[in-house]
Amino acid sequence: MRILMATMGSGGDLHPFLAVGGVLRRMGHDVALLTNPVYAAQTRAAGVEPMALGEAVTLRGVLERHPDITHPVRGPYVVMRTIMAPMVPEIVRAAAEAIDAWRPDGVLVHPLCMGVAWECERRGLPFAVAALAPSMWMNPRDQLVMPAFRSHAPSPRAVRLDLFMGRLFMRAMLDGPLNRVRRSMGLAARSNVFLEDCRAGVVNLGMWSPVFRGSVEGDPARGEICGFPWHDRNPGQEACAAELGAFLDAGPPPIIFTLGTAVVHTAGGFYRAAVDACHRLGRRGLLLVGEPDYAPDCGNDGRVMAMTYAPYSVVFPRAAAVVHHGGIGTTAQALRAGRPTVVTPAAHDQFDNAARVKRLGCSQTLRLSRVTGAGLAQSLTEVLENPGVAAAAQGLATAIGKEDGATAAAQRLLGAFGGG
Questions:
Q1: Superfamily grouping for domain 2-230+404-416
Q2: Are 46 and 63 in contact (CB under 8 A)?
Q3: What pLDDT, on the 0 to 100 scale, is given for residue 240?
Q4: What is the mean pLDDT of residues 287-313?
Q5: CB of 417 within 8 A of CB of 106?
Q6: Do the two domains 2-230+404-416 and 241-400 of this chain adopt the same fold?
Q7: Strands (E), 273-412
Q8: Per-residue DSSP letters for 49-85?
Q9: Is 241 exposed, middle or buried (0-12, 13-18, 19+ CB in 10 A)?
């Protein structure tokens, strides 16, 4: 079969598609990925054919122009209305050109690529949706955490209220501009366009482990929870393997600090606080800082080291604990590694992901805007000195390590497209 995929956003939005695309290629199918051209080299390295969606734009450049992308309240508005909604006509045009060129039997789409599914709808081409995190299904029966101020265990009433308000907000913000594009394509206008697209498709792939979040009544009718997909290689950015190995071998397991590939560009004082926390605890630390100029002063004793990037699958299993922002890909890798975590969410689905791992008993939460060296040290002490947290983390890793979400997703995708 010939499969076209479409995604955009950060590394966390890219990697699941590369994982699934790599499996499809190994099964003998032809796969192309429509995405930001800045990811072309990574896409080719995964064995997938890259196709350009817009101009090559780095995340650093986007975040420098729109730092409020990672704001806990304004972030969704900036992403959806300021950045994505104006891009929809270009996304539709690029999707049409890619479909004409690739002639796919089906399309797998990230909901953020608004308009790709509509082009499939217009042509009668089957499409599937990849929901990367449980929050994308927006199920009122789920214990979903949307606002930053909610506890990690909100009541059903609070969840229903938050979803009601979220739907009103998204409808007011997006239905007008999105329906103008739909009508220009000869398609009928709809209510709650984006939210309904998140739950659409001939199959809707839940790209997370059922251990993280199982099926809940009210999930999409064609929803399938597949397991986490594993992909974390970025050859163009990875630190020197010999230098990394030497540091990991030089002493006790370090605490690893990372803010992924997007939040890292609006880190504020996070990495300085990380160095302070390591000194307070007398622990070694490895800071994954994204860009060389983001590295703080780590001191001269060699106990704390800053590197741009390292594959999480390599370094997380060698950590004493992991401090991260709560992106779904990073959360998955930390769960698979079986290490205690402190999650420092900034915006979007990160609050929900942080709440879920806290409910699973393997993590604490400290909002990024409240991070200090003393606060990090206290949260890390809570997870490192509690044997129950370590036991919960190891138990989850054992279960999640048996899963192969990318293969399960590929098989379900082929079945939905009539290829197996």
A1: Glycogen Phosphorylase B; (3.40.50.2000)
A2: no
A3: 76
A4: 94
A5: yes
A6: yes
A7: 285-288, 304-307, 321-324, 341-343, 363-365
A8: EEEE-SS---HHHHHHH-GGGG-TTTHHHIIIIIIIH
A9: exposed
Mean pLDDT of 257-266: 96
323-357: burial string, b at 16+ Cβ within 10 Å, e else: bbbbbbbbbbbbbbbbbbbbbbbbbbbbbbbbbbb
CA 296 vs. chain centroid, Å, equals 25
Distance CA 286, CA 9 (A): 26
Q: Return the residue matching tokens 């206290």.
A: 378
pLDDT score at 265: 96
The topology (CATH level 3) of 241-400 is: Rossmann fold (3.40.50)
Q: Are 377 and 281 in contact (CB under 8 A)?
A: yes
195/24 Cα distance (integer angstroms):
28
Would you state the pLDDT for residue 238? 67
157 in helix, strand or coil? helix
In whole numbers, what is the pLDDT of the chain averaged over residues?
95
Q: What does the pLDDT look like over 97-151, one tens digit per residue?
A: 999 999 999 999 999 999 999 999 999 999 999 999 999 999 999 999 999 999 9
Contact residues for 402 (Cβ-Cβ < 8 A; gap 6+): none
CA-to-CA distance for 216 and 233, rounded, in angstroms?
32
- Quick one: pLDDT at residue 237? 66
253 and 281 Cβ atoms separated by less than 8 Å: no
In this prediction, residues 177-200 reach a mean pLDDT of 96
Residue 332: is its pLDDT beyond 70? Answer: yes
Q: Domain locations in the chain?
A: 2-230+404-416, 241-400
Token pair, residue 100, equals: 């004409």
